[in-house]
Amino acid sequence: TKSVTLPDLVEKYRRNEKVVAITAYDYITGTIANKAAVDFVLVGDSLAMVALGLPSTSTLTMDEMLHHCRAVSRAVDGPLIVGDLPYGSYEPSDEKAVESSLRMIREGGRVQAIKLEGGARMYSRVQSIVNNAEIPVLGHIGLTPQKMGHVGGFKTQGKSVEAVEKLLDDALALQDAGCFGLVIEAVPAAVAKFITEKLSIPTIGIGAGKHTSGQILVMPDMLGFYDKFTPKFVKKYSNCLDVCTDAVKTYAEEVVSEQFPSAEHSFNLSEKNMKAFEA
Ligand code: KIV
Ligand code: NA
């Protein structure tokens, strides 16, 4: 497989082709993303909820993120891999942000870029990571699940004129600080379009309409694997939880009824040894 590089992504954006991204958390989801040949895979901290069953992303640690980044890396040799910096690993200081980003590259397998949440407040963090550690940074504005205190819950952002102005200021600040792209989450389609047109870096939308430079979805959400909560912006492309549950139920029934394992799934002794064995 030819690996996707950051310049490839930028080229795609310049040619006005949509950038396709999806999250992955382990070897299996990584394999799916790799076979589907998306442009980039985000090992998102959403894994706290959709892969670990935690109530929010706020308790996920750097060590846990790295463990998942390595698992995804073993499956993904095509798409670029972006690692999400967990809550608390970059907010306290520029030094901490650089240190965490370096760990992501050194200990995160094939991770080549990091993502962090927040707007203009993250200006010096992004600058430090890009310029001092020379690690590409993907920004993330709009609904930022690590920053519930600021955004006020899982709800649409950028609905007032002031909020749109703030979003644009944040987007321009992140671009100026050196982000190679921006995730824009849960904002009206017209707002994401407006911001996308003002920028010279790609926007990757999730719940942000069709006018962004690309799209990202959380894999267990779009596959229908996660049944706790599904945001309006998630399209379910499959019904994997039901499909897989049915498969396991059938297996259980066949074990009980002795339909499984049949001869096809059993090892057989040679006739000669069978005779000797029975004698
Ligand atoms: O953690 C995550 O999955 C994300 C995406 C929703 C962009 O941040
Ligand atoms: Na995230």
UniProtKB/TrEMBL annotation:
It holds the Pfam family Pantoate_transf. It comes from the Eukaryota. The keyword Transferase applies. InterPro entries: Pantoate_hydroxy_MeTrfase, Pyrv/PenolPyrv_kinase-like_dom, Pyrv_kinase-like_dom_sf. Keywords: Pantothenate biosynthesis, Transferase. Its EC number is 2.1.2.11. It catalyses: (6R)-5,10-methylene-5,6,7,8-tetrahydrofolate + 3-methyl-2-oxobutanoate + H2O = 2-dehydropantoate + (6S)-5,6,7,8-tetrahydrofolate. GO terms for cellular component: mitochondrion. One of its GO terms (biological process) is pantothenate biosynthetic process. Pathway: Cofactor biosynthesis; (R)-pantothenate biosynthesis; (R)-pantoate from 3-methyl-2-oxobutanoate: step 1/2. One of its GO terms (molecular function) is 3-methyl-2-oxobutanoate hydroxymethyltransferase activity. It is an enzyme of class 2 (transferase). Catalyzes the reversible reaction in which hydroxymethyl group from 5,10-methylenetetrahydrofolate is transferred onto alpha-ketoisovalerate to form ketopantoate. PANTHER family: 3-METHYL-2-OXOBUTANOATE HYDROXYMETHYLTRANSFERASE (PTHR20881:SF0). Belongs to the PanB family. NCBIfam families: panB, PRK00311.1. This is 3-methyl-2-oxobutanoate hydroxymethyltransferase. The lineage of its organism: Eukaryota, Fungi, Dikarya, Ascomycota, Saccharomycotina.
